Amino acid sequence: MKTFLLLSAMMFVFIASMAQKSESDKDCWYNKDMEKNKVPGVSSDRAYDELLQGKTPKPVIVAIIDGGTDFNHEDLKEVIWTNEDEIPGNGIDDDKNGYIDDIHGWNFLGNPSGENVDNDNLEVTRVYRLLKPKYENADSAKMASDEEFQLYLKCKKEVETKYAASTKALANVTTLYQNLKVADSVFTAYFGTNKYSANQIKTIKDERMQPVVDFMSYWMKKDVDTTIVKGWIDHYESQALYRYNVNFDSRTIVGDDWTQNNNPYYGNNDVKGPRAGHGTMVAGNVAAVRGNGIGPDGVTSNAQLMILLVVPDGDERDKDVANAILYAVNNGASIINMSFGKGYSPQKHFVDSALRVANKHDVLIIHAAGNDGENVDVEIHYPSNFDENGNIINDKFIVVGASTNSAGKKLPASFSNYGKKSVDIFSPGQDIYSCAPGNKYELASGTSMASPVATGVATIIRAYFPELTAKEVKEILLQSAVKYDRKVLLPGGSKKKVSFSELSATGGVINAYNAVKMAQERVNAKH
Predict the structure, then answer these.
(1) What is the spatial distance between Cα 47 and Cα 416, in angstroms, rounded to a whole number?
(2) What gap in Å lies between CA 352 and CA 322, rounded to an integer?
(3) Which of 87, 475, 484, 496 is the 20 to 30 A CA-CA neighbour of 263?
(4) 434/424 Cα distance (integer angstroms)
(5) What's the pLDDT score for residue 154?
């Protein structure tokens, strides 16, 4: 029973984070201003209203490297990038960029037949599978000082432990689901309807039904029904069947050697893919059409969103991330949003190389810090912008933690990663109202939401001040952040309080109003 209580608590957070918002919540707090609205948003509404009226922006191509995105969504289709040099559906690489019919971007998780990767391993599982043939029979004593062998042991322990736990949990929640269905059928037959209450169940005095009455009363009291438990089943199926299953390998669909990167021209043009939820929300945070009276207002009105699919239900692969970055750079993106991350990066050199190319081409990259509530100065979160010697790879790379709509001790989101060296700035990332596939709208939380909010601010600056370089834009975004000089709860569930200034390099929250003013001052100083 304790197992199910823990599951209930865990899944409530997940379900609440994805719930539909009420009408009163659709004000997109993240666009608000602390001074005017008493809300620690990014002041994008104020920037547009007070500083940008009458000014002419330049459209900015923003690459969304993520999962799939519903590019036909009613609140996004006007802001989706279109490759005008490509003729849709003719099966020809008209623009000679190596990708056939890449109208709105590219999917690096598919094949030319239209098949796409859906579920995948976590990177720790792939590392374990790669190293297992080499080390499974190794002498531990002789290999004690071998770093790769120690990595193998670490991955082996994590994968086998998580696989066993998720397999056991899957069996438990599957049994619970079946029992709930049986109990429901009993009460439906007893009352003649499937609409019954916990109080009605308690009126049953038949001793033969007492066990099922006690069972159903317990779970109804916790607001757990078959719909909730089905969500638990999906969660643990993902872990047991795919994420931690060393015998599952999705890459046969793509048909390449993912450990080598000598040919970037693979995949297909299906940028929606089998799972478009996460990418659609990220796209909505950046640029859902402002002022159209439907859904949320994105942070910026000036983006053209290029969709690049690399994230399955599992961990992204370094090869795909690298090639998506290169596609974005080569096809005109000036900002790249990356709302993903993982704990291992076996082909990190692929990504490092792509980051160096982006650096040379004046492309700003904005990356989510991660949701483990950890100090990423200590626990590395990939992709990392540091090489093996601790040197910065790309000086136009911004890492973003998540803040909340509270300016008090709960300003940093409890789940957000942090780090004085590795996280640059915070941005709204909790209870963010955004787009969902099928012209729907949902509430979500995560640094995955904070990063595109920051990307929206960056897009405003690049749109209205195109003469500024990506490095200058980064400097402006960081220097203009709103500082909150106060003690806050350390993320990760701790009750310990620390100075907010210790959680990131800037100690602040990104702010469009301040950034626009500073950008204008810098441009004026050049003339």
Answers:
(1) 27
(2) 8
(3) 87
(4) 24
(5) 96
